[in-house]
């Protein structure tokens, strides 16, 4: 990447006009984020075009004045047009060359040169155009103090010409100067407000994109944790069973190995699905994950490891797919935790409805045990995030003989 590209991608000024924009984008986690930068593709061409036009008009006036004055008997007269042209072109060059480095001093210098040319009295006073352009650029670049001070000085000069000079032509020139500078101030203020508004819109857009990226990252982390934590826990338990029974009951060891193979294959398929969604592959599954109908096979798998699990599923009709996924993952994580921290405990699962909500309660019972409050970890954090993302809640309650996980997710009641 060229150095200018690298600097521009960080949102810095790269020798471009202040207050304008470029179409730089920042790639983030598979998405494109528009980043506000201080330059635009069309802005520089417009400003340079205006400066070239100003220089051409100034040169035209200068040549015309010189030609008209060459026949004059006053030998010093031709120098008026030459001085006008040099001062006016000088103002154009100042704006063209210095506008990026210091828009504030630029407007002051351009104003001084333009006013000096303006005093030479050629009509029309095109030498004021680079001054007006510098005023606009200074306002857009937040150099308003320089712009207003320079315009105030120019107004003072113009008003002096209007009220102290009796000639109507000079009075008209003075009023014309004030009008032109008022237009420049108005245009600069308008462009600055538009720049600020656009920058705020792009900042909000970038914030929304970053929030979406972070939410997607958390969702994928939850999915991977839930899939791998449960599957690896099941594999660990079954491997222990197989090793214990390998000598005395080889058929039970074979069954444990079959369970390990099934759990590994299912975990691999789910991980591939999550990674496919992450990569945006067309072949990735459109469904977000298992639904409540997959709870039966999950419970059977846990029972095969020797755990005592009961399932009371009263959720009819089924809620929306995202709610089903959340209930499934919370039950899955609760079973994994029960098997890990309370081996041998009986686990009761109750899925039910209440007015305006779906509930899922998983309670493990191990008489004689002294249950402790769970330590927050990735699993607990993931369960809470799932509940919160759906507007629900997750409560963990410690009882005398075990732990209870209670999920509540609000749902819209179907009209009768």
UniProtKB/TrEMBL annotation:
Entries under PANTHER family matching the protein = NITRATE/NITRITE SENSOR PROTEIN NARX-RELATED (PTHR24421), NITRATE_NITRITE SENSOR PROTEIN NARQ (PTHR24421:SF10)
Q: Which CDD domains match?
A: HATPase_UhpB-NarQ-NarX-like
Known Pfam families for this protein? HATPase_c, HisKA_3
Catalytic reaction(s) noted: ATP + protein L-histidine = ADP + protein N-phospho-L-histidine
Name the record gives this protein: histidine kinase
Q: What class of enzyme is it?
A: transferase
Domain Histidine kinase/HSP90-like ATPase span(s) in chain numbering: 325-411
Alphabetized UniProt keyword annotations: ATP-binding, Coiled coil, Kinase, Membrane, Nucleotide-binding, Phosphoprotein, Transferase, Transmembrane, Transmembrane helix, Two-component regulatory system
Look up the coiled coil feature and give its residue ranges: 196-223
What are the record's GO terms for cellular component? membrane
Q: Which domain of life is it from?
A: Bacteria
Which stretches make up the Signal transduction histidine kinase subgroup 3 dimerisation and phosphoacceptor domain?
216-281
This protein's record includes keyword Cell wall biogenesis/degradation: no
**One GO molecular function term?**
protein dimerization activity
> Taxonomic lineage per UniProt?
Bacteria, Bacillati, Actinomycetota, Actinomycetes, Micrococcales
Q: What residue intervals traverse the membrane?
A: 47-66, 78-98, 110-137, 143-164, 171-191
User: From what organism does this protein derive?
Assistant: Amnibacterium kyonggiense
Its EC number(s): 2.7.13.3
């Amino acid at each position: 990447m060229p150095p200018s590209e690298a600097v521009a991608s960080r949102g810095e000024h790269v020798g471009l006009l202040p207050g304008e924009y470029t179409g730089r984008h920042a790639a983030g986690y598979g998405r494109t984020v528009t980043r506000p930068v201080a330059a635009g593709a069309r802005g520089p061409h417009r400003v340079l075009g205006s400066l070239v036009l100003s220089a051409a008009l100034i040169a035209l006036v200068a040549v015309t004045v010189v030609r008209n004055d060459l026949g004059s008997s006053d030998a010093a007269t031709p120098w008026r047009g030459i001085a006008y042209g040099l001062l006016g072109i000088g103002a154009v060059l100042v704006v063209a060359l210095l506008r990026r480095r210091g828009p504030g001093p630029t407007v002051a210098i351009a104003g001084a040169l333009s006013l000096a040319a303006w005093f030479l009295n050629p009509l029309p006073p095109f030498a004021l155009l680079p001054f007006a352009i510098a005023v606009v650029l200074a306002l857009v670049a937040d150099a308003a103090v320089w712009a207003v001070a320079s315009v105030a000085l120019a107004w003072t000069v113009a008003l002096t010409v209007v009220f102290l000079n009796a000639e109507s032509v000079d009075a008209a020139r003075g009023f014309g100067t004030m009008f032109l500078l008022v237009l420049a101030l108005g245009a600069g203020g308008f462009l600055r407000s538009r720049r600020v508004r656009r920058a705020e819109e792009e900042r909000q857009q970038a914030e929304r994109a970053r929030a979406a990226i972070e939410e997607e990252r958390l969702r994928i982390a939850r999915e991977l944790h839930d899939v791998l934590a449960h599957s690896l826990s099941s594999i660990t338990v079954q491997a222990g069973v197989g090793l214990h029974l390998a000598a005395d009951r080889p058929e039970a060891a074979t069954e444990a190995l079959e369970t390990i193979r099934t759990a590994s294959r299912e975990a691999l398929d789910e991980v591939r699905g999550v990674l496919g969604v992450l990569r945006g592959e067309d072949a990735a599954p459109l469904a977000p994950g298992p639904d409540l109908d997959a709870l039966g096979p999950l419970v059977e798998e846990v029972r095969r490891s020797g755990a005592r699990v009961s399932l009371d599923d009263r959720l009819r009709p089924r809620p929306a797919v995202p709610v089903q996924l959340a209930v499934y993952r919370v039950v899955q994580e609760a079973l994994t935790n029960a098997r890990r921290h309370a081996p041998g405990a009986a686990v009761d699962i109750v899925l039910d409805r209440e007015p305006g909500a779906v509930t899922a309660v998983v309670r493990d019972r191990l008489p004689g045990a002294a249950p402790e409050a769970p330590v927050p970890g990735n699993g607990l954090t993931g369960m809470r995030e799932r509940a919160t993302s759906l507007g629900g809640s997750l409560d963990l309650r410690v009882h005398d003989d075990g732990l209870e996980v209670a999920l509540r997710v609000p749902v819209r009641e179907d009209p009768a």
